[in-house]
Amino acid sequence: MTTGHVFIATSLDGFIARPDGDIDWLHEIDAAGEDHGYDAMMESVDGLIMGRKTFEKVLTFQDWPYTKPVFVLSRTLDADAIPATLREFIKVTTAEPQVLMAELNQKGWHSVYVDGGQTIQSFLRNGLIDTLRIARLPRLIGRGVPLFGMLETDVFLEHVETRSFSSGLVSSLYRVKV
Amino acid sequence: MTTGHVFIATSLDGFIARPDGDIDWLHEIDAAGEDHGYDAMMESVDGLIMGRKTFEKVLTFQDWPYTKPVFVLSRTLDADAIPATLREFIKVTTAEPQVLMAELNQKGWHSVYVDGGQTIQSFLRNGLIDTLRIARLPRLIGRGVPLFGMLETDVFLEHVETRSFSSGLVSSLYRVKV
Fold first, then answer.
1. pLDDT of B169 over the 90 cut
2. How does pLDDT run across B103-134, given as a tens digit for each residue?
3. E-only strand ranges, chain B
4. Given a cut of 90, is residue B38 above it in pLDDT?
């Protein structure tokens, strides 16, 4: 079965963005020029799944940052919102997480990068996440969009490894226990 | 000035207790028999400050675990709630955080262990925390009492060091930047 992988940065208090979606506070870490493993992770996956909010945020970036196929989970997104130059890379889908993962499995995908707070939470609740790499910035922002959300039952993880960087970023890799 | 120090364990999703205050899920880590630095930290401080809820939780333990003086922040706690055998170690105070820290400074205290979610948040907002050691357990519990809360402005931290343990616990020490 295709495995889902999370690779995300949060504030020390667990937020992935400010309440308005602002992620400018993350840029100081990018500026440090350290290799936090993003390129290697991106190389290892067959493509991406993200929620609409994350997709719309990425669309505001100067350049489209992905070279691999992207599935956007949305019931409301208008296909016209996707720039014509990107339509061959991006598919909007209303499929439930399990259904989408089964479709990707059929397509021969081994692994997929799952991004966006609500999408990650939904995939976790559905047992569709295999690993999470969480990079914590040394900053408390006090409020915002949380990485994690409600769960019906505890999720047990195996700690694989942790690396820390001069910038103050601490990156931990966990595998979800099944 | 007396410095405040946090030493606390949280779930990977940032909770220090379940919604009803239950911390049984922390015991698997205690059972691992690893030295996470608690004794050294406790040795280094002159005493403790905690909120009423934390105090009432500690009172349910089989034995009173502290040998150093404890200040309990409360406007409602009845002195009769304190067992007679503990009254020489425990003082209930309604002092504001800054006032209490100034009093401790007058008494010659160099450092104090600050415990309990609301108390930690209040001391952070008032700039009274010098270091935080946060130990993350490899488990998501989905809901509960959060370690961190609202802040008026970002709090910038310096990452000092991170250690990980066979149990899966990852412990990071931060110093608050001033």
1. yes
2. 999 999 999 999 999 999 999 999 999 999 99
3. 3-10, 15-17, 47-51, 70-73, 90-93, 111-115, 129-136, 139-140, 145-146, 155-164, 170-176
4. yes
> Smallest Cα–Cα separation from A174: which of B13, B62, B84?
B13
Chain A residues with beta carbon closer than 8 angstroms to that of B142: 148-155
Cβ neighbours around A6 below 10 Å, total: 22
Domain A3-176: which topology? Answer: Dihydrofolate Reductase, subunit A (3.40.430)
ipTM of the complex: 0.95
Note which residues in 39-68 of chain B have CB less than 8 A from chain A: none
Tens of pLDDT, residues A45-64 = 999 999 999 999 999 999 99
Cβ neighbours of B81 (radius 10 Å): 15
- Report the Cα–Cα distance between both ends of chain A, in Å, rounded: 14
For residue B66, pLDDT over 90 is answered with: yes
Rounded distance between C-alpha atoms, residue A160 and residue B8, angstroms = 22
Domains of chain B, by residue range, sit at: 52-147+158-168
How far from chain centre, in Å, is Cα A122?
Answer: 12
How far apart CA A159 and CA B138 sit, in angstroms, is 6
A41: left (phi over 0), alpha (psi -120 to 50) or beta: alpha
Q: What is the pTM of this model?
A: 0.96
Chain B contact for A160, CB < 8 A? no
CATH 3.40.430.10 fits B52-147+158-168, yes or no: yes
CB contact (8 A) between residue B154 and residue A14: no
